[in-house]
Amino acid sequence: MNGSDFLAHMAASSRQRLEAARRRQDEKQLRARVAALPAPPVPRFSEHAFGLIAEVKRRSPAEGQLASASLSPVAQAGLYAQAGALAVSVLTEPERFAGSLEDLEAVAGALPGLAVMRKDFLVDGYQVLEARAAGAAGVLLIAAMLEPARLEAMLALALELGMFALVEVFGHDDLAACSRLVTSAARTPAGSGRVLLGVNCRDLRTLQVDYARFAALAPALPRGLPRVAESGIASPAQAGEVAALGYSLALVGTALMRAADPGTAAQALLAAGRAALPEE
After folding, report:
1. pLDDT > 90 in the chain, percent
2. Which uninterrupted H or E stretch holds 154?
3. Cβ proximity of 92 and 100 under 8 Å
4. Which of 98, 230, 250, 272 is 20 to 30 Å from 26 at the Cα level?
5. Which pLDDT belongs to residue 65?
6. Is the residue at 46 inside a domain?
7. Pick from 47, 91, 101, 32: which is nearest to 67 by CA?
8. How far is residue 40 from each of residues 131, 132, 188, 194, measured CA to CA in Å?
9. What is the dihedral of CA 261, 108, 68, 253, to 10 degrees?
10. How many domains does the chain have?
């Protein structure tokens, strides 16, 4: 499969999983399950601080296998939480990332005070409900995959459920298409502190990394909500660089999954980011 086909393939695969899930459980039943749950934990995201969203993923399409079959997502997430991560991202895409909703459910169930985000290629509000039913406190929404009306509806649903949402862009076109609706959602009572805007320096349409994208897009990112630097951050120095650019969070997966001591590695990223924060 060509890199240029990757995002389209992931969207098609996600729709197939969506259809299968609907056959197992209709939306009315799913909403009833969600309604019976306690409110999810609310992370203290702030645009004026630096925090970490640490990721649990078994493999990466670009980097290959990152963990053995014996990986305990709960143990990995526990190390992140002890290190001070504000949230943990859990991959649930099965085909290319070897993830599952079961991984997310295990982490959320074992660590109920930890904000766990479902990271996947979501295409429908049903999957937001599905994430919440599995214990997720947040979801990733990829702007390039969603028409503005669909993105707006999925974002509104996440906030209605008390969840946070990380809206991800790859470049100026994605940002222009979603900036207004993301900013508007962040200004609502439900969205205050729960709407994040992320720049992924790995363009999932091509799988190419362009680390310079963080600096290129930083001046165009709207104020008033936390900004997240995603992918490509492998060292404390790079965490410091994105913090200095005004990013208030880093989402880091591969570097932490490969670290001999994930907790110490996470602490080093946090310390470097906080030391580099611009003065107000």
Report:
1. 81
2. helix 148-160
3. yes
4. 98
5. 74
6. no
7. 91
8. 11, 8, 18, 12
9. -60
10. 1
Return d(Cα 90, Cα 126) in angstroms, integer. 18
Q: Per the domain annotation, does 124 fall within a domain?
A: yes
* Token pair for 96: 């290319």
Using the 8-state DSSP alphabet, how is residue 38 labeled?
Answer: P
Interaxial angle between packed helices 262-275 and 236-244, expressed in degrees from 0 to 180 and rounded to the nearest 10: 30
d(CA 55, CA 52): 9
> Is residue 31 assigned to a domain?
no
Measured CA to CA, the distance from residue 53 to residue 74 in angstroms comes to 15
What pLDDT sits at residue 202? Answer: 82
Residue tagged 């969506």 (tokens): 18
Under 8 Å CB-to-CB from 2, ≥6 apart: which residues? Answer: none
Closest to 216 measured CA to CA, from 199, 195, 234, 240: 199
Instruction: With cut-offs at 50, 70 and 90, classify the pLDDT of residue 3.
Output: very low
Range of the domain at 271: 3-21+57-275
Strands, E, within the chain: which ranges? 51-56, 59-60, 64-65, 87-91, 115-119, 138-142, 164-169, 195-200, 202-203, 208-209, 227-230, 249-252
The radius of gyration of the chain's CA atoms, rounded to the nearest angstrom, is: 17
Q: What are the pLDDT digits (tens) for 13-52?
A: 999 999 999 999 999 999 999 999 999 998 889 988 999 9
In one letter, which amino acid is 16?
Answer: Q
d(CA 150, CA 71): 35
Residue type, 159: L
Would you say residue 204 lies in a domain? yes
Burial class (CB in 10 A: 0-12, 13-18, 19+), 54: buried
Q: What is the CATH number for 265? A: 3.20.20.70
